[in-house]
Amino acid sequence: MLFNSFEFLLFLPLVFIVYWLIPSKKVLLQNLFVLAASYFFYGWWDWRFLALIAFSSLIDYAIGRQLHKTVKATQRKILLWLSVGVNIGLLATFKYFNFFSESFTDLLNTFGLNASPFTLSVILPIGISFYTFQTLSYTIDIYRKNLEPTKNLIAFLGFVSFFPQLVAGPIERAKNLLPQFLKPRTFNYNTAKLGLRQVLWGFFKKVVLADGIGEYVNVIFENYHEMSSITLVIGAALFLIQVYCDFSGYSDIAIGLAKLFGFKLNKNFAFPFFTTNVSEFWHKWHISLTRWFTDYVFIPLGGSKKGKYRTALHVLIVFFISGLWHGSGWTYIFFGVINGLYFIPNILFFNNWRNPFEESKTNSIKSLGNILGMIKVFTLVAISTLFFRSNSMLDGWIFVTKIFINTSRVDFNEILNVTNQWEDVAVLSLSLIAMFTIEWINRTKEFGIEKLSRITWIRWLIYLLLSFTIVQYFGKEVDFIYFQF
């Protein structure tokens, strides 16, 4: 079920009303209802996926309980690798088997060996990369003795399948979300009001900006051979903005919905476009995934404790895996690797290798250099996401070369010819300006419109304008980009 669908507009208020009619002292009943609603929400796409998420959840629940009871180091490692094997095995089967099979076949054919790939006819379960990482972190934390397993199966199943963040994150840790299923939850008007505000902002970014921009991006990438340099540059920039509005919009909706039900999810975006270096950008983009890879891949590899050259290697490994996590294709791997390479100069030459994922304390423009830094970061990331969007590595390379080759053709009307409606271009342009302005003003807050004018009528005017614009664009039911991961 899509957030931006009419079905969800019926689903949400019904679930909200029934949920809060359950007395807060009846935590088990609340959790059972949340679990049932979450499974209904997830099964709306394909009910067969429910068996997979239930299987993954039950395996890690059982392994977590057994890990806590087991003392011998060898047996604990066996249990840990059983969890890793099951979770990664599910991902490998549904997401990567055909890619690796086809790549291996291509390699054999390169050496003159005639081979045909063996592929599986399977559908990629929505959100499998998110919930497998969530359950896997639970088992690893228990193995490290950083977490005690829960005996409450219903709470654990709810933690894994909680519908606001189930299919595209944030990737929650058991330390944060699971305890919230174990204690009474009472309705808080101020928290719910803040949640609605964040949901509104998320819908604005997704329905108006991401989906609106996506129409132009699709035409540019599908017809890039015929486009001028300026149009290709605009297309690459717009795609990065589209991904941001789509994914951060989803995160805002998810976090806001959780607040409506008395839960607090972790922040997943911290205004990454206002950063001045690549490492800071990735610390503020998809924060839950960056922290997951930092804790469960980067640090176990040795982190930054073995010198700057090993640190650089560890960063490249993390970004290679991150690229592969995003999708089963060489364009995704290249997307990950090139972003890892962006880190290398800072690690090798600028002596900040001890913490390559360090977060800046403030976002501020203190000089022209800061502005140029933001432009540099945006450009570098846009180049990598250009390949992320391309159908193949060859398409990506041709796209880049045509930016430099087609400089003699400058036709600003190309992008307008997508819909031939100046009104759409005007609305999108004004909406983009409004989004960046509001998020810059509130860059130290949790989300864009967390704090607005103290004057009541101005606040409500903004809410009404956002709502009116959303209604104008609502109904297309375009999938969120990260659903494919």
Protein architecture, described:
The protein is an all-alpha fold and 485 residues long. It folds into two domains: 6-186, no CATH class; 191-276 and 360-484, no CATH class. Helices cover 68% and strands 0% of the residues. It has 18 helices and no strands. It has helices at residues 6-21, 27-43, 49-69, 73-110, 128-143, 153-161, 174-181, 189-222, 229-260, 278-284, 287-301, 308-326, 330-349, 368-389, 393-405, 413-416, 422-441, 456-473. α4 (73-110) packs antiparallel against α5 (128-143) and α14 packs across α15 (393-405). The longest helix is centred in the N-terminal third of the chain and has 38 residues, at 73-110. It is globular and about 65 Å long. The protein starts with 5 loop residues before the first helix and ends in a 12-residue tail after the last helix. The mean pLDDT is 86.
Poorly predicted segments: none
Number of strands: 0
Helix content: 55-70%
| Mean pLDDT level | 86
- Gap between N and C termini, in Å? 16 Å
Radius of gyration using CA atoms only: 23 Å
The overall number of domains is: 2
**Computed structural class:** mainly alpha
Largest sheet: none
> What's the total helix number?
18
Which range does the strand content fall in?
Answer: under 5%
Order of helices and strands: HHHHHHHHHHHHHHHHHH
Shape: globular
Blueprint (SSEs and pairs):
Elements: H1 6-21, H2 27-43, H3 49-69, H4 73-110, H5 128-143, H6 153-161, H7 174-181, H8 189-222, H9 229-260, H10 278-284, H11 287-301, H12 308-326, H13 330-349, H14 368-389, H15 393-405, H16 413-416, H17 422-441, H18 456-473
Helix pairs in contact: 1-2, 2-6, 3-4, 3-5, 3-6, 4-5, 6-7, 8-9, 8-17, 8-18, 9-14, 9-15, 11-12, 12-13, 13-14, 14-15
